[in-house]
Specification:
The structure holds 2 protein chains of 2 kinds. By secondary structure, chain A is an alpha+beta fold. Helices cover 52% and strands 19% of the residues of chain A. The chains are: A alpha+beta, B alpha/beta.
Chain lengths: 421, 227
Amino acid sequence: MNVNDVLSYAFGAIKLRKLRASLTTLGVIIGIAAIVALLSFSQGLQDTITVQLQKGFATKTLIVSPKGGLGGGEASIPLLVSDTDTIEKIGENVSAAVAIMQKTCFINAKGRTFTVNIIGVDFAKYQTIYESTFVAAEGNITSENDSVVIGARIHDPWQNGTIIADVGDMVNITWTKRSGTSQNKTYTGQITAVLKEIGGFNIGGPSDLGIYIPISQAQNFFETDECSTIIVLLENDDKATIDSVSEAIKTAFNNQVSVTSATAVLDIISSVFANVDFFLAGIAGISLLVAGVGIMNIMIVSLMERTREIGILKALGMKNQTVLMIFLSEAIIIGLMGSAIGIASGWGLANIVARVGIFGGRIQNGNQAAAAATQISITPVLTPTVFLGAFAFGIIVSVIFAIYPAWRASKLKPVEALRYE
Amino acid sequence: MATIVEAVNLRKTYLLGKVPVEALRGVNLKVEEGDFLAVLGPSGSGKSTLLNLIGALDKPTEGKVFIENIDISTLNDNQLADLRRRIGFVFQFFNLIPRLTARENVELSMAIVGFGKSERRKMAEELLETVGLKERMNHKPAELSGGEQQRVAIARALANNPKFLLMDEPTGNIDSKTANEILTLVKNLNEEKGITTIIVTHDQRIASQAKRTVQMLDGLIVKDVIN
């Protein structure tokens, strides 16, 4: 019997039991749709985050921070603003180092008090590192003493034209010093620039929610020389450069600092996502296995109903392997239809979820500023790997679970099968 | 004339629950090419068992079946399947595939052998014409009468140019008028085309039309008469 005849015979058998076949196929559809929806959504999220991160910090940078930090560990030396000199002295491959001071303060604007993150940096150096993001949309970034640069979301928090701070405005920035008694420290400055909108996360880099003051002012205002991080600009983003400079910095500080490279962070995020994908695919895979058991169940029932038919086919001279192929073809057809419809509906589902935003849809920036959080929308991505993988998986599962019933059918003895009522 | 089927000392024992039942207890039979043989006997005399063994649908407990001088106990599953393609079976309950039309049922046995679509369609139509059912060929078995279904089964059995026809109570499930028509058809096929036919039946009228009658009782052949 040729392949066409086997397939059309199998298809005819499926058509005869439409409801049963559709329910069996539905099992496969649900499994495949779950896999495709979860993975394309997760891929979309990963792409979004990667793009946002690349915007937020240049790949040519290293972030130096005091060791320990959260979660303790051994006590570390504080990082000082002047430590940038030490780093710049490393020389080879280092173009610049800029210290960043950060403190949570309050500002008053339009009669309301907002909690904001005040960042002290050397404006000129910061601009050389983040030449595409630390850019003024309005005004000029000048290093005048009382100049204040604000992020786009500080300027227009709700993105609806309600401006709470604008170029030329005077702002009072306040923090509370607590040493025995509480004492409010206030810094008054004039907004000289609003940054253009950056979007995305910021690790070390400029943020839409940041308020920037010159580092010398910050040292006076915060009454300290300690900085939270030092950003180092490298001459290139080769792995060798990143590694050698990282080592040199660690050595210079007796291993009391940790050095993070933007590229390394991206790598970590990718590997985390690989694990998440594996986990999600695993969960969805379980539902497909359930569908597989359903296929097996249905095929055993169908085998019993069709015992006599198999007897007839064998009496007409059909070979065992042809009977096997007919039953496997039925599973392949179910797997094929289930996978195709499953991929389409999974893809549709991911897009609907992304649009409606049931699953977050937007991610809130961790920075709990009064100004509205950065919004990121996720576009699901269906990679060829996921597409082909889901297709193959759907068919393979269907076939694997059909092997046993098909084998049993092929081994039926003709005379017993014919006698079966 | 050449011997087409030979059974030598055939024994077949079934287990009915735990009780062994001897369906055949040493049957010897030779069928010559062109023969028209009726096997008669009461229920349980072993006639259907004999037919199944000759048709390679079942294996004997003891003894041997030779078809065209080949010992079929030496054949593997695939070779047995090949052999069955050249044996035309007709059953009491027709055994057509319900979802296929008359023509498709006849085509099926040719599809199994590997004939292409247009070729087998043409041959199926010719065969259905031979059995007088050309105008009903696009009907499904449920839309055909018992006699018509049996004609389809005969047409199917004739596909692939069989070495012989094996018929198990072919008229057992149809009225006597139709049974006569079927009998005439079978007789004509035997006389005009020389198709060797072995018929298992209760029906004395069929037996009287056959060239040779074999009487069975309790798993043995008790009478073998040339009419």
